[in-house]
Every structure is written in C-alpha cells, then in structure tokens.
Amino acid sequence: WTEGTIADAENSLTELAALAETAGSQVLEGLIQRRTRPDPATYIGRGKVDDLGAVVLSTGADTVICDGELSPSQLRNLEQRTKVKVVDRTALILDIFAQHAKSKEGKAQVELAQLQYLLPRLRGWGETLSRQTGGSGRGGGAGGGVGVRGPGETKLETDRRRIRHRISRLRREIKNMRTVRVTKRARRTRNSIPAVAIAGYTNAGKSSLLNRLTDAGVLVENALFATLDPTTRKATASDGRIYTLSDTVGFVRHLPHQIVEAFRSTLEEVAEADLVVHVVDGTHPDPEEQVRAVHEVLAEVSADRLPELLVVNKTDAADEDTLLRLKRLWPDAIFVSAHSGRGIEDLRSAIEDRLPQPAVEVRAVLP
Ligand code: GDP
C-alpha cells in the first residue's frame, strides 16, 4: 500500500525489487494499492489479498515481499491467506546485511539487529502450553519440560530468554569493539590527520570513488549494500598532506531502525569526520529523495552539521536534462564519473580545499 503518489510507490517498489535481487530472489510481479493507511489485519486491503493470492498462483511465486514493516499479526495473516512465505522490507534488508557483513563488528551488529527484529515476532506452540501449565516460570511443569526447560517454563520463554541473553552479550561485544575503534581514532586525531567520510545512498558509487581517489582496491559490486564494513584508506593531497577517506555503510530509504541502532557506532564514525563527501547517483530516478534519506540518517547520528561536499556521480550514464536540473538545484556540487574519471581531479581539489588547515608548528630555539 502507499500513502504517497503512485510514482513514489513505483520508485520504492523498483528499489525493493533491486533489493530482492541482491538477496538472490527472482522478482516476478509487483502490486501497488493506494490507501490512506495499511489494513491493521492484512496490511493491504482484504480484496487486494485475494488479488495477491491469484498472482501467487498464476506466477508460482514462493514468497511475497511487502514494501514496509509488517506487524507480527499482519505477517501471519498474509501467510495464512496466500499460503506462501511473507517477508517485509525490514527482514529483507536485514537478510542482505547478513549476507554482506564481513568484519567481526559488522557481523555482530547485523546479528543484534536480526535478534531485535525477531524477538517480538517469536511464536511457538509453547504459548498455548504456557497457559495449560499455568505458565509464569514457576510450578510443577506437568507434561512438557523434560530436563531442558525450567519448571513450568515453555520453549518460547526459554527461546526468548536465550535471545535476550545473546542480545546483551552482543551489545557488550559491540561496545568493546567500539572502544578499540575510538582509541584508534584518538590516535589519528592526536596525529591530526584529517578524516573524510564518504556517505551516500546505497549503490551511488561510494566504493568506486574511494578506489578512484586512493587506488584502494575496494570491492565494487553492482549490488545494493556491497559496502557494509567501513573501509578506511590513506590519501595524499597534492601538497603532500595526508588524510583518510572512509567508506561508510550504504544508506537506504526506510532503513530499519534496528539497523540504525545496531550500526550506530559505525555511523557515528561519520560524525567524527572533518568532511562528509555525499555521493549521489545521477542516474537515479529521484536523486533528491536519496539525498533526503541520507540527510535523515546523518541527522540521527548528529552528523548533519558537518561540512558536506555534494558529489553527483555516474555523469557518464546520466541523462543531460537531469544533470542540468541537478546543476541548477545544487550549484556547489561536483559532477563526476568514477568510471570515466571525469571530474575526479576537481573532486580531489574540492576535498583538499575543505580539509582543515594543519596547526602551524612553532619551534623556538632557545639559546
Ligand atoms: P556503493 O554501494 O555506493 O559503494 O557503490 P559501488 O561503488 O559499489 O557502485 C555501485 C554500482 O554503480 C556498480 O555497478 C558500479 O560499477 C556502478 N558505478 C559506480 N560509479 C559509476 C559511474 O561513474 N558510472 C557508471 N555508469 N556506473 C558507476
């Protein structure tokens, strides 16, 4: 369903399809319904559920992906009615993050986000059992609970408890890893090496630009979220000054709050930068919307007050009218192509111009 215009919904659905393909699915068909708000029971309207069921049957689809976050009961109802697996946008994004996380910290952050998503959705036969046995973690444990479970405790409660334990453990681990990172950062600050963070919507070309600017050899994939773990590389300015360039996690519209929460420490690193290079995909149908979505996330981690250099990428493939429009809209932006190299030198000097000036070292020679 959508409350915005149909064009917005179509853009969002195109992106959802790209996300699904990134996750390894084959997308068969899209369905949009205009409503003022989602149906509390089935997300889309009841009549539309029948249409959906018919599409599932005719295409032989095995999964339905909804472009929004479903409540646990909406998800269950839709699964019952369509007889196939139902996934929402949040679960899909979490799945992709899980596939792409490589560093220890990235993996821990994704697992934390997945468990937080799972916890309220956990259901099992245990729930009815809990009522039969009087529940509430005490008492006789009649029937079930052989050995493994606590007296009167259901499997569901045990699972929930395990998940909560794991969540607090992961939180602790992430906090410790963060301390290590903060120490590294402090060392960098002490040596006063300026830091530049590359931010931008997912697939905008952040990794490609990082490669162009530093010959870093970072993995470039035409897949949303190829960039999950921040990569930091050293770059040398034309006057010999050294600065760091870091690639950050890809941003996406409606980034699940669990992800923002779990990746907070990574995102916060952006807030420590001296300059944010915000990369925009010039070939995207709605670049302004991408910029808005990135600004929203930056504001969440208080990185919205940093100096920002807007960079429109993929000018080799973008349409001329769009580029003219964007030039009028963002007169200070730098237009580049990471592929052809066009504008890269301009970008390099724009970055250098904006680097903080090093403190002048004064040495006095005492007699
Ligand atoms: P990231 O997710 O923002 O790090 O984006 P990547 O650097 O991984 O690039 C995403 C996709 O866009 C890849 O398929 C790149 O080859 C493509 N891409 C990046 N820069 C350009 C460019 O300047 N022109 C064109 N045509 N494609 C580009």
Structural class: alpha/beta
- Beta fraction of the residues? 5-15%
What's the alpha carbon Rg, rounded to whole Å?
Answer: 25 Å
Q: How many H/I helices?
A: 13
Q: Regions with pLDDT < 50 over 5+ consecutive residues? A: 125-146, 221-228
Largest sheet: 6 strands, mixed
First-to-last CA distance? 80 Å
Instruction: Provide the succession of SSEs.
Output: HHEHEHHHHEHEEHHEHEHEH
What top-tier CATH class of the largest domain fits best? Alpha Beta
Kindly report the name of the CATH homologous superfamily of the largest domain: P-loop containing nucleotide triphosphate hydrolases
Helix fraction, binned, reads: 40-55%
Widest β-sheet, arrangement of strands: 4-5-3-6-7-8
**What's the shape?**
flat
Hetero groups in this structure are: guanosine-5'-diphosphate
What is the total tally of β strands? 8
Please describe what this structure looks like.
With 367 residues, this protein is α/β, with parallel strands linked by helices. The protein has three domains: 6-96, Rossmann fold (3-Layer(aba) Sandwich); 102-171, no CATH class; 192-354, P-loop containing nucleotide triphosphate hydrolases (Rossmann fold, 3-Layer(aba) Sandwich). It is 46% helix and 11% strand. The protein is built from 13 helices and eight strands. The strands form two sheets. The protein has a six-stranded mixed beta sheet with strand order 4-5-3-6-7-8, sandwiched between helices. Strands 1-2 form a two-stranded parallel ribbon. Helix 1 packs parallel to helix 4. The radius of gyration is 25 Å and the shape is flat. Residues 125-146 and 221-228 have low confidence and may be disordered. The structure holds guanosine-5'-diphosphate (GDP). Guanosine-5'-diphosphate binds at residues 200, 202-208, 220-222, 226-227, 250, 313-314, 316-317, 337-339.
